[in-house]
Specification:
Layout: H1 37-52, H2 56-70, E1 85-86, H3 103-118, H4 134-143, E2 150-154, E3 160-164
Parallel strand pairs: 1-3
Antiparallel strand pairs: 2-3
């Protein structure tokens, strides 16, 4: 065998050209039109006017209101408000959130207490015989409300309430 490639003869068929006149496809030129924002706004307003059949007075009123809305100042943080702590005095004085522990609060408390117990922290109750893991012991302590913990519930404006765990139902 040689390193040179072999020549392969390929017979091609000749395609007969159609008789008669050859029709050329028309050339379509696409013009790029740059529209300004003003023109786009005008077009949108015209489309809206066609959809809702608004009168010129109604369109003028909408434009006036849109300008008012666009000029408004957005206040992200209220500079006047200072966070306030709601006092918790007596049973049934939970003012923020439900009167029971939420599942998220319960999970956080159980996880933290189980970790403490597994790292050697002393339990707050005598260990029952049916308890097999630190999580079971933490759950038993939570049911008896002997864990000394306070839940801090916050409102979006920064107000908060510190609730001792024994106040929950």
């Amino acid at each position: 065998m040689s390193d040179e490639p072999e020549e392969i003869n390929v017979d091609t068929e000749e395609v007969a050209e159609p008789e008669g006149p050859v029709l050329e496809e028309p050339v379509v030129e696409i013009a790029v039109v740059e529209e300004t924002e003003e023109e786009l706004k005008v077009e949108k307003k015209e489309k809206k006017a066609k959809k809702g059949d608004l009168s010129p007075e109604e369109i003028a009123e909408q434009e006036r209101l849109q300008k008012i809305i666009d000029e408004r100042e957005v206040i992200e943080i209220d500079p006047i408000h200072a966070p306030v702590e709601y006092e918790t005095t007596g049973k049934g004085k939970i003012r923020i959130g439900p009167p029971t522990l939420t599942r998220f609060e319960k999970a956080r408390i159980l996880g933290a207490r189980a970790l403490q117990l597994s790292l050697g922290a002393p339990p707050f109750i005598a260990i029952p015989k049916e308890v097999a893991t630190s999580l079971d012991l933490a759950y038993t302590e939570l049911e008896k409300r002997v864990i000394p913990i306070t839940i801090k519930r916050m409102l979006p404006n920064g107000d908060f309430q510190n609730i001792p765990i024994d106040l929950f139902d």
